[in-house]
Amino acid sequence: MIESEKIKEIKNEQMTSGSVCCQGCGAAIAMRMVLKVLGPNTVITIPACCWTILAGANPYSVFKLSMLHVAFETAASSASGVFRGFKVKGKPDLNFLAWAGDGGTFDIGLQALSGAAERGENIIYVCYDNEAYMNTGIQRSSATPEGAWTNTTPVNFPEDRPKKDMMAIMIAHDIPYAATISVAYPDDLKRKVEKVKALNGKGLRYLHILCPCPTGWRAEPAKTIELARLAVQTGIFPLCEFENVDGKKILEVNQCGTMPVEKYLSLQGRFSHLSKENIEKIQEEVGKKRLHLYNLESFYNNS
């Protein structure tokens, strides 16, 4: 059985048709997949981001379940409050999902996320990462990769800082579970979402999904899944998971390919200005990060 057939077996759609997403929107694919696994006993908290719009204008919504729109910086703190409210009402066993973009996670909402992780709040936090503030006009965030064009990092002055390592930051909080997932690997996504669901009551669980944005990445809408797959196959976005259960910490690299990065970069207009030397530098940095990741895996699994 091929990968794409397995997640299709879940007849548990929590989204309807009618989303106003752009063609090829990775964020919409990610939301649909995650909700299929979590199911109807889920409450979503969404800060300002693309999904503020994609869900539909009040009183309509593409969701079949409860959803709360909150301020940009408050995804984690608001989800924590929702959990505590339902706990008082005797319903602590729902899935309390905070769903935020990279701007609301890496930047504006980092303090709330860190606080919720430190307190051990019983929420699932998902960062759908399209590597810029796409909803407000493609401005750079600290998730924007080095060398990329955005409207605030023009071609003559592209992003000159490396992407923030959110997985390392979340692992440092000693949370029960953290993982990277991709819309191009639905079975891996399904397995990891099932894990965070099973860890309900153990504290904050963090999922990081790379979501190609055809508009902001200047890519063909039909290339969304190919881009998501190439990000993994080149090692730019490795699939990995960290578990911290009963004091035992394990980091596992599920997939981190060695394919040249040029194929991935060449499909995106945001990198079209890069020189051969620029691409070689990116390839070198990916190699260093791959080695560092495998060293971390060895450290955790042998400690």
What is the oligomeric state here?
A: single chain
Spatial extent as radius of gyration: 18 Å
| Percentage of residues in DSSP E strands | 15-25%
Q: What is the element string, with H for helices and E for strands? A: HHEHEHEHHEHEHEHHEEHH
Question: What gap, in angstroms, lies between the N and C termini?
Answer: 37 Å
Structure summary:
This protein has 303 residues and is α/β, with parallel strands linked by helices.
Write a structural description.
With 303 residues, this protein is an alpha/beta fold. The chain has one domain: Rossmann fold (3-Layer(aba) Sandwich), CATH 3.40.50. 39% of the residues lie in helices and 16% in strands. It is built from 12 helices and 8 strands. The chain has helices at residues 3-8, 26-38, 50-54, 75-88, 102-107, 110-119, 166-171, 186-198, 214-217, 224-233, 262-266, 276-301; strands at 42-46, 66-69, 95-101, 124-129, 177-182, 205-210, 239-245, 248-255. The protein has an 8-stranded mixed β-sheet, sandwiched between helices. Strand 7 (239-245) and strand 8 form a beta hairpin. Helix 2 packs across helix 8 and helix 4 packs parallel to helix 6. It is globular, with a radius of gyration of 18 Å. It starts with a helix and ends with a helix.
